[in-house]
Task: structure prediction
Amino acid sequence: MQEITKPNARAILVGLDISSTKNNPHAWTVESSLLELERLASTADVDIVGRLTQRLPLPDNRSFIGSGKVKELKAMLEKHDVKLVIFDDELSPRQQVNLQNDLSGEDALEEDRIQVMDRTALILDIFASHATTREGKLQVELATVQYELPRLRGKWSHLEAEKLGGGVGARFGMGESQLEADRRLLGKRMSDLKREIKRVSTERETQRSKRIASGIFKVSLVGYTNAGKSSLLNALTDADVLAYDKLFATLDSTTRKLTLVSGREVTLTDTVGFINKLPHGLVEAFKSTLDEVNQADMLLHVVDASAENFEGQITAVETVLQEIGAIEKPTLLVFNKIDDMGDNADLLQNRLKELRQDQGVELVSAMTREGLDDLLLAIERFAAASSQSMEVLIPFTRGDLVELAHLRTTIVEESYVEDGTRMTLRVPKDLEGQFKPFLETVEN
Result:
């Protein structure tokens, strides 16, 4: 696998405007999408020296942006002495090869050829540099292999006309021989990665099953990359999770215990951030990690209140939640960074009037801790709604159940009588069976 980008590289960004915002005011404009692409490039230590946009009803099948814009792009590359172009959408293998040949020239030496990459390759490059756990590294490598496999022919197109040897009867050219060898190697590596990911995910599933068996209420943080999920996890649980002001600073899920106002403990899990045009291959590769979202009892959808296009970011996250089958989960919208809203303040207040009619919404700042108490109370309400009200009389010989009640349920009332401990509880459905033998009355 070759390195996608080199440190301190310089590039030109290219965006295609094929959508209209008239019917969807929250759609991403080509300008806002390119601004985000520039942030992605910065995260990968790439300096941007120029931008080029093209407006077409559909991408050009051959070159994505059309022959006229390709000539304009080539002139920009020569003017700025740049060898790297980054497209804001995923290119087909054929489009990528055509662009490299058109921009480089057929007779260009290997070191003089223009490198053409797309948004997917850039995100994969960032994921590869930010993955820290064994599972995260395996998942990123699998997504990268899946991306590279259909693009192998283009990497050896400059050798296809050369002969392997043996005269006119030789079956393969040098490029074809290398292509087949690489296909076999990548195919084998893909099988090995899938097998290893399955093994590692089995270990994760064992840990997850223990949490499910405990009956503890499970909360997952989801949201756009850099919305402040890790910072919020740190603020709520006093964790020390890495939290940088960069896109995809953390990729690996982290679970911490969170104690609510009532003293009830729940788990809070931070997951990988989402992004507009998130490559499908990454969603597939990170399925085992994203299963944390599917197994959660509720989601905290963290939104960057300071982001200019926070509406578009909400839509991008909901698109991924739909793809992984988690869109119907009980969800609380949490607008973070309210200490830095600026011009978004009035827009956000107007939007909140609509949002509050549909679902719960909380405004917080992980930095200043404003709104965190209200957020904890909101989580408490969600947790209580998922449990059954029970009045039980637990004998003194079952101190273990009293301890379980304190750790895993909401205690409404508790008193000591001659026969044991009388408790009014809100019990998670998974724990109802353990308390039913000591039931006095049940209320729905």
